[in-house]
Amino acid sequence: MFRDAFFLARNDAWHLLRRRETLMWTFVMPVVFFYFIGAITGGGSIGSNTKDPIALRASSDAGFLLDQLVRRLEDRGYRLVRPQTEQEAARYRRQLIVPDRFTESVLAHHPVRIRFERKGGGLGSDYDEIRVGRAVYTVLADLVVAGEKNETPTAEALTRLAGMPRPLRVVVERAGAIQRIPSGFEQAVPGTMVMFTLLVLFTTGGVLLVIERNQGLLRRLASSPMSRSSVVLGKWGARMSLGVIQIAFAMLTGTLLFHIHWGPHLPALLVVLFCYGALGATLGILLGNFARTEGQAISFGVIAANLLAALGGCWWPIEVTPPWAQKLAVFLPTGWAMDAIHKLVSFGYGPAAVAPHILVMVVTASLAGLVVARTFRFQ
Description:
This protein is mainly alpha-helical. It is built from 15 helices and 4 strands. The protein is about 65% helix and about 5% strand.
């Protein structure tokens, strides 16, 4: 049985990988989506150690308060860049425009307006506004305190004030697992990997089964010495091999090109992804088993994969969706995979936290496999 299944799986997997559309959607389109989605959602994650560049446009007469503002912005995780021309400044996503004679105007109690401009919106834009606003208000607070002490605001006075011990401190310690919502490539790479794995296994895995049935190839297998179990296992093995190749390529690309760190529990993560691939391969065969035409298999596979991706947290972090959507994701294969990946990679949980995810994927794949084995159609 296993010898026949291995022979069929090897030949079917080679046939799957020779198709141009399979190569396109397995090796090309995921990388495009990694970059596109990761870039428009921030290109990284909030809380990253990488400092965000911000173009500072200020004249030479801005004065010492500009230096104080720069220091406060650097404390907030920014790297200040001073472009020489407006064209050069336009290449940066973030720009801070400080008016002429900045320090002189502030000390003369004239209204001063600092302009912050950012390309794009979303969570990253809101976070930038908070950080920049905090830096500006900190400089203003230092000026207020210096005035209360009857000190003339100077660069030395503000530096001395910043070095004074604070009577009130906020000590931040992690009380458990990290609850930072993944964003940028940290969300885009796993989400795209989970979505495209399901998409390819649904479409390519399902439609080829329909083609083989319509062309009479499955009837020829039925007349061979191979058992029904060997045929079903061989078809599953071919699609499982395709899923494993796709997941391995996505993880390698995410590591080398987008600097994704897959967390300290890589073996547990690989088990989760293997179980997800097994579930996707089984559902792909189930789809191909019941579809009557190639159009049915492709259209249903595309719609189902995209719908499951959207509702399961592949397109955006499920944590930012309404409560009903978060509850719905608990019942979806993509939701199980994304929740398990983020628990291991982003939230700092251990392997025990994803045991229920692995169990439910194995049970669902087993039940779907039982249905396929009992209802597999050769014609």
